[in-house]
Amino acid sequence: MSRYAGIDSGSWTTKAVVIDDDGRVLGTAVTRSGADLAVAAGRVYTGALTTAGLAPGDVSAVWATGFGRHTVTFAHGSRTELDCHGRGVAFYVAGPVVVVDIGGQDAKVIRLDASGQRIGHRMNRKCAAGTGSFLDEIALRLGVDTGDLDQLAAQSGEALELSSFCTVFAGTELLALIRTGKQPADLAMAAYRSLVKRVQAMDVFQGTLVATGGVVAYHPRVVALLQKALGSEVIVPPHPQEMGAFGAALAARDGAVSVGPDGGGRGDR
Amino acid sequence: MNHDGMAGYGEDRQAGRPAGLRSAEALRDTMGAYYRTLGEGSGGRPPVAWCSSVGPVELLRALGFAVFFPENHAAMLGAARSANRYMPLAHAQGYSQDVCSYLTSDIGAYLAGETPLSAFGLTSVPRADVLVFNTNQCRDVRDWFEWYGRRWDAPVIGVRSPRSIEQVTDGDVDAVAKQIEALIPTLEAVAGERLDGSRLALAVAAARECSDLWGACLGTAAARPAPLTFFDGTIHMGPAVVLRGMEEACAYYRTLLAELQQRVVEGVAAVPGESLRLYWDGMPVWGRLRALATTFAEFRTSVVASTYCNSWIFSDLDAGDPIRSMARASLNLFIARSEAPKEQYIERMAGQFGVDGLIFHDCRTCPNNSNTRYAMPQRLSSRLGLPSLVLDGDVNDLRCYSDEQGRTNIEGFVEQLADARAARRQAVGG
Predict the structure, then answer these.
(1) Angle formed by the axes of helices B101-112 and B70-79, to 10°?
(2) Which of the residues A151, B89, B98, B312 has an alpha carbon 20 to 30 A from that of B174?
(3) Segments making up each domain of chain A, as ranges
(4) Which of B388, B400, B411 minimises the CB distance to A259?
(5) Is B18 helix (H, G, I), strand (E, B) or coil?
């Protein structure tokens, strides 16, 4: 039985997943990416191996993904997060599928055909609205931890809207609402609605919908609001935050081909 | 439009750097000589006309003007990555961050008293005696020229073209031809001479020859592998922009065409190991030209054709009917057309150059040259069965472009195209 690992070097967090030949997840780890992406990658790889009860020598291949994929010097190859999120979702859900991945710094819509082949993608513009950074900013303004935002929104009783187009303006709009005595719970819910509206505007959503990413993992309200907005069930597969790393591990298992000149970026660019 | 005959990913890992063209030296000489003429001393110097890049330059040649193209100057600022240093100066004057970053970077550079033309002995952009625009491309050129016109008390004249044209009619041509004719008295007064019809015919003939030669150069990229890329084209189109209507441009393109044809014969690729071929619509990102060329080359992907480089092919020019043919050429320009003819154009180009996908640059400050905002990529992808990618960026304002997001978008697109090709091969091979 061979084992494979995937490292997702994201903007906020770095994730690692170790799988076996059948794609069963043996171990995972997540850490803040921080300023040294290579260190974070090494840390999560060690962490995932530990939870799997394995040593580095037990792993046949490691592949990297995420914006810091080229800094994972011990990876044998890399694919973009567009590929890996799609690849990971295709393992769990039969196509055609539309994947919505909401990460710390970007949001992606990935389209897969019936065979799981990627046929298109959209990314958010150079802007934080519609991403985890937006929720971080709102949580800061409300004086709560981002992780507590979902719980706070659960107490919402009044439907409020944040109409601003950008994160900074939404922040000032929030302050104006606070001055008028609006409740933090309603403001937290308004922030979620705003995020969902931004995602909803990225593409036409039809057919099977799957949501992944750290925001989906820690803010289940986003999924509920997305379902309501799109009028369709949204599937959340296992390990939504680690889906990119899982896809990278599958790429390692499947012997995917890196499109770059150096076999996919082993940090020598 | 599937081209499975090329080497696939994973078979040949020898991706290389883009191969340079020998003609680059002649290009430097040609462009350098042109810029130096703009700085020649005022004693006996011909009057200077500023002209928008697809404006009625042939008329200015025939009247003996030294012609300066501020869009070329702005592109130099972008390519030198100095544009972002200058733009805030123009923003402070009231020119929004959302209007043409060519305009804001050029005006900003003027206010800063700096110019890349200093490499050619100029201390400033040449002071205009007259500024001549054509709004066939956008309104911004007129606003841009009027800023200088007010500063220098120089006449700003031009052609107010119809835009979003479905079919160019004789009526449209008549209307624009009349506007071109109406420019003549002012231009004659500034030039201090009468327009000579035979000189105009010669300028139109030279512009047409330049246009045909440039078109032939770009056409060589239909070969497999392509001998030049869009990124090469953006550099080598210089003479077609600033020397249209002059023999110097024709001479340069004869040299370039000979080299490109030789490359085709010898199978020399601009992108070694060319595997995928793409079409580029929209403006270049001047400050990332080299980086993007290198990125695509690393992925053994050749951007073989573009709307942008082809916009300086004016096949309607006719020395036998100078002014009407100038009018027709300016109206038939891609940027002046409506969605349907634009889509037909890209469809024709995609077929001619055998591309695997389409890239659309959504240029933040150039809505007129961004064909992403009314769902054209979606319509074309659906109709042609060609995947498309939209890159967010800007022609000069690098604040609007994310290197990392751009690279991931491109790499993800290449992965998608390469995987689709591999799947087709597998299906064919059983």
Answers:
(1) 80
(2) B312
(3) 1-93+241-269, 94-236
(4) B411
(5) coil
How far lies A182's CA from each of A139, A145, A159, in Å? Answer: 15, 19, 10
Q: A94-236 — its CATH code? A: 3.30.420.40
Tell me whether residues B10 and A257 touch, CB distance under 8 A. Answer: yes
Render pLDDT for A154-181 as a digit per residue (tens, 0 to 9): 999 999 988 776 777 888 888 899 999 9
- What are the backbone dihedrals phi and psi of residue A64, each rounded to the nearest 5 degrees, phi first? -115, 155
Indicate the domain borders of chain B: 24-429
pLDDT tens per residue across span B206-265:
999 999 999 999 999 999 999 999 999 999 999 999 999 999 999 999 999 999 999 999
Which positions ≥6 away from B171 have C-beta within 8 Å?
none
Q: What's the CA gap between B371 and B366, in Å, rounded?
A: 10
Question: What was the pLDDT predicted at B44?
Answer: 67
Structural domain A1-93+241-269, CATH architecture: 2-Layer Sandwich (3.30)
* Contact A123/B at CB under 8 A: yes
Q: Is residue A230 within 8 angstroms of chain B, CB to CB?
A: no
Q: Would the CB atoms of B408 and A80 count as touching at under 8 Å?
A: yes
Of B172, B167, B190, nearest in space to B51 by CA: B190
* Close Cβ partners of A124 (under 8 Å, ≥ 6 residues apart): A106, A107, A108, A130, A131, A198, A202
Element housing A19 (H / E): strand A13-20
pLDDT at residue B299 greater than cutoff 70: yes
Cβ contact A80–B13 (<8 Å): no
Could you write out the DSSP letters of every residue in B274-339? --EEEEEES---GGGHHHHHHHHHHTTEEEEEEHHHHTT--TT--TTSHHHHHHHHHHHSGGGB-H
CA distance A121 to A15: 22
A109, A110, A259, A262, best to mutate vs chain B, most B CBs in 10 Å: A259
Band (B2; pLDDT cuts 50, 70, 90)? very low
Q: Which of B356, B378, B399, B419 to mutate to test the interface with A (most CBs of A within 10 A)?
A: B419
Q: What is the pLDDT of residue A125?
A: 73
Cis, bond preceding B225 (omega within 30 deg of 0): yes
Helices (H), A74-183: 81-92, 132-142, 149-153, 167-179
H-helix segments, B63-136: 70-79, 83-92, 101-112
Contact by Cβ (8 Å): B399, B369:
no
DSSP per residue, A185-205: HHHHHHHHHHHHHHHHTTS--
What does pTM read for this prediction? 0.93
pLDDT at B101 over 70: yes
Q: How far apart are the C-alpha atoms of B365 and B99, rounded to whole Å?
A: 5
Residue B269 has pLDDT above 70, yes or no: yes
Residue A263 — left, alpha, or beta (φ > 0 → left; ψ -120 to 50 → alpha)?
left
- From B94, B164, B172, select the one nearest B337 (Cα to Cα): B164
ipTM > 0.85 (yes/no)? yes
Query: Partners of B337 in the beta sheet?
Result: B165
Q: Which segment of A231-245, B18-32, B254-268, B381-395 scores lowest on mean pLDDT? A: B18-32
Size of interface A-B (CB pairs under 8 A): 70
